[in-house]
Amino acid sequence: MRLLILAATAALFVSACSSDDNSTEPASDGNGTTASDDASDSADGSDNESTSGIDDGTDEGGTSTDGTSLPPQAFCTPCDSDMDCGEGKFCKDDVRGLGFCTSRCEYVGSNVCVGRSYCKQFGNETNSFYCAPTAGICESDGLDCAPCQGSGDCIEGRTCIEPYGDITFCAKPCDSSADCEYDGMGCGKAENLPGNFCLPVIAGVPTPKCGARPLDFCEQCETDGQCRSGLCVESEDIGKICSRTCDSTDNCPNGTDCVQEACVPPIAYGCQGFLGCLGVECEGGQLCYNGFCVSGP
After folding, report:
1. Is the pLDDT of residue 283 over 50?
2. Which domain holds residue 189?
3. Domain count, the chain
4. Which regions of the chain does DSSP assign to beta strands (E)?
5. What is the mean pLDDT of residues 202-225?
6. How far apart are CA 75 and CA 293, in angstroms?
7. pLDDT by residue (tens digit) across 150-183?
8. How far apart are CA 139 and CA 143, in angstroms?
């Protein structure tokens, strides 16, 4: 079901925190489709040049203290720091922990991600969104998290796993995290699969989600099937986002409203504001992470 949400007024904040069963970060679909091309995006780095970075007046990307910089580098160019990426570009880690050049992004407007990329949250601030390869990595090389159709697409020592329907990627079997060769990965369970695999570490937990899919609440979508909830809604002001059904605001995450039977954030700050914890009021002893209240340390 797709809903057209014409407007959402200022936030009606609720005091109870909603629990998030989808607190993991963006998994590849294994077939290289993209958000602009059929579903969210893919990740081999081809025609993935993102739009220019957003200048918020606080960070100029790869500009040195003396004002000199490299020319802006293409999306997915390998890097170790912002300086390697040039003016207005930034160096961010992929799911393996390897750096790639990218730009800041927004869900709507002129700074949206294009080609085989999606707007991913890095950190917990409202401006911590950057274009990232949909599969979580820039090159399909048969190693960890590379999209696959079968184990023949993976290098020796990796196998093609399918933790969710129609989402497949290469993974290395493991007994402990010491068996995982990338800093961004740890040994953990993949849903409905026997044994353990080296998986991206998300919020401190090895999680079978390499890139964009399955999409969680307030992540960008094109179709209902891309969302873990099975519901993608559209708003001119907020963009296309994964939502969840509701019959009242009490059924929605804290800081969002129930509009036309779907949970949405206020248009004043949209999903990027919600994921940055704007309008989210957590009870004592809880912290806000990606818009949801979780138990503090």
Report:
1. yes
2. 151-206
3. 2
4. 4-5, 90-93, 99-102, 117-121, 129-133, 159-164, 167-171, 185-189, 196-202, 205-206, 232-235, 239-242, 257-259, 262-264, 286-289, 292-295
5. 82
6. 33
7. 889 999 999 999 887 667 899 999 999 999 999 8
8. 9
**Structure confidence by residue, pLDDT tens digits, 39-98:** 333 333 333 333 333 333 334 555 555 556 678 899 999 999 999 999 999 999 998 989
Q: Say if 166 falls within a structural domain.
A: yes
Tell me, yes or no, whether 238 lies in a domain: yes
- Indicate whether 251 belongs to any domain: yes
The pTM (predicted TM-score) of the whole model is 0.62
Distance between alpha carbon 106 and the CA centroid of its chain, in Å? 12
| 197 and 171 fall within a common domain | yes
Please indicate, yes or no, whether residues 282 and 223 belong to a single structural domain of this protein.
yes
Q: How far is CA 196 from CA 173, 174, 192, 229, 256, in A?
A: 6, 6, 11, 26, 36
H/E segment holding residue 271: helix 270-275
Label the pairing between strands 185-189 and 167-171: unpaired
- Residue 197 domain flag: yes
CA angle 131, 132, 135 (to 5 degrees): 150
Same domain? For 202 and 223 the reply is: no
Q: Which of 179, 206, 233 is the last residue of a domain?
A: 206
